[in-house]
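Q: I'm a student working through a structural biology exercise. My instructor gave each of us a protein and asked us to get a predicted structure, then write a short paragraph describing it. Mine is Methyltransferase domain-containing protein. I'm not confident about reading structure output yet, so if you can add a plain explanation after the tokens, that would really help. Here is the sequence I was given:
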Amino acid sequence: MKKEIEIVLEKLEGFENPKLFLEQYVTPSNLAAFIVTNAKLFGDLETVVDLGCGTGILAIASAILGAFAIGVDVDIEALRIARRNAKKLGVEVEFVACDVKNFEVKKKCTVIMNPPFGIQKRHADRAFLEKAFEIAEKIYTIHSAGSEEFVKRTAEKNGFLVTHVWKFLIPLRKTYSFHEKPFEEIAVEVFRIERKNSVSWR
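A: Happy to help. First, here is the predicted structure for Methyltransferase domain-containing protein. I'll explain a few features afterward.
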């Protein structure tokens, strides 16, 4: 299942005009496929919200596996591409143009996101985590290597628990003019986080 989804996701368009101040990078298709297939196995794919969805890969991948998916982003250009991507694959995703701080959802949901790493703006990922803790029962989130202590501490403060940590080396495509190589491998950590009253160790 993972490989099939990865192949499908490879067909999606990336950013036409990536914005450095938003730290816009395309989530690699193999990483997106890994996250959503694991979320499916854990039973976490009913209603999914992708905070900072960019061109939509995580929301679309969730929808492929049957989730009611919502993608949220402040960048209208990126959302235009995301809608095109969803249409290309024939899946329904609700895309919402707003700052993640202002987003509200009434249903219980799982947040699956690749927030800014905070390289351009320190602690940029915090607003995304705070919103995820506010609206979600389960969270899958991607962070730069070395974030484990911070994510665990922040989760604990908000009544959540990190149940799984996966470590990856992912290929980052040349996105900005200062990138010298076509691809650069970077180390990331993916966290699965649950609200404490619903923790299940599977």
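A: Here are two points you could use in your paragraph. The helical segments are 2-9, 29-41, 57-64, 76-89, 124-135, 148-157. The chain has one domain: 2-196. It's a good idea to check both against the output above yourself.
Q: Great, thank you!
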